[in-house]
Amino acid sequence: MNHQPVEGFSKLSKQRKIDWLISEYLSNDRSYEQILQQYWNNNAELQKLHEEFSENTISNFYMPYGIAPNFLIDGKLLALPMAVEESSVVAAASKAAKFWIDKGGFKTTIINTEKLGHTHFIFNVESHKLLHFFNFRLKKKLLEATEDITANMRKRGGGILDIKLIDKTSEMPNYYQLKASFDTVDSMGANFINSCLEQFGKTLKQEVAENEDFTQEEKDSLQIVMNILSNFTPDCIVRAEVSCKIEDLKDDSGISNEEFAWKFKQAVTIAEIEPFRATTHNKGIMNGVDAVVIATGNDFRATEACAHAYAARNGKYSSLTHCTTDNGIFRFWIDLPISVGVVGGLTNLHPLVKFSLALLGKPSAQELMSIMAVSGLAQNFGALRSLITTGIQKGHMKMHLFNILNQFNATEEEKQYFVTYFKDKTVSHHEVIAELEKLRNK
Ligand code: MEV
């Protein structure tokens, strides 16, 4: 069937949008409307709030919201809120938290909290002339021109930290940047940074136009290409770590402490040197990080982009975590660049985000960075622990069992039967189906 483009879709009411979709794409089958409606909230105000988070909203898309308790982080015992659809992520986090609770827990250090943004521009001018103009006039003007925008942030202890002129002409003809660093305190700061940068673009244009040291030809060559924050924040970074004596590394799989430590370190080293493994290894870390990022109303696309750019910062994609086993001590840590906020964005709007932040004791942005890094480290510990002992499928499929059973509309009794059935066995899709068929044919 050929579909027609729609005009003014965003202006249609929610009902008219749904009507149009059902007639245009869903063969006029009204049962699809019920699927959408069953996810609407009965509380009209709450429903409206959710609809207004984005455009063209016709329903809500739910994700499980779970809790991983027993996280001892810098001496505080926390229960982590995790929004994630993948079965076994919350269970793995909880198991790792419990493993470390009697070994001193997780320790974190904020290494730096500097965020970055750039005005990217093209200017056909001698570099030294531009540098002189930047040092002796422009930099001061950029700071003055953004005073109104930065006033509140400065009151909170943040603001623009520095602005540099970067010469990129060896990589692209006439390409320069104004590279600015910011402290955005407890906010992620994307709007603040972008507002400052857009003002930089305007001020740069104006100051060049008014400056008599530039020829008319030079002035005409200036093009502000874009002003935008960078989601790569290698200097907004937190370290989370665990350590213990190798003799205390007791695992219940039957493997000795020494073998556990040795195999674990090999697994991390493989992720450090082999990008194919590093990608999966880091994906597992982000299972833990993103679940907390989402539950606290932060931007998981930004945290993903930043983590992977950092993992490739030396020109080869590598592991975000590291491990040593020197002098009888097992040490495992992550350096995670991550830019998140506890004010602004969804934090004051989304009721579950408010709940998450309250549950975490209303953390500062730095404390939240630490919690997210711990969640990633714990997730990676859990994954590697399974991989080097029982294999990943045992725990994974145990959690996936309910997804398989739900596909076959299993009753509560049938579910109970399968929990007992697979108590000492690894769950397989094939075996669930075969056994369910037997059970139902009895
Ligand atoms: C699955 O979501 C994540 C893992 O593959 C991570 C890993 O292999 O380290 C289990």
UniProtKB/TrEMBL annotation:
Recorded metabolic or biological pathway in which this protein acts: Metabolic intermediate metabolism; (R)-mevalonate degradation; (S)-3-hydroxy-3-methylglutaryl-CoA from (R)-mevalonate: step 1/1
Catalyzed reactions: (R)-mevalonate + 2 NAD(+) + CoA = (3S)-3-hydroxy-3-methylglutaryl-CoA + 2 NADH + 2 H(+)
Keywords for the protein's UniProt record, in alphabetical order: NAD, Oxidoreductase
EC number in record: 1.1.1.88
Pfam family, one: HMG-CoA_red
Protein's GO biological process: coenzyme A metabolic process
GO molecular function, one term: hydroxymethylglutaryl-CoA reductase (NADH) activity
Superkingdom of origin organism: Bacteria
Gene3D superfamilies: 1.10.8.660, 3-hydroxy-3-methylglutaryl-coenzyme A Reductase, Chain A, domain 2
Transmembrane in keyword set: no
Family: Belongs to the HMG-CoA reductase family.
Protein name: 3-hydroxy-3-methylglutaryl coenzyme A reductase
Origin species: Chryseobacterium takakiae
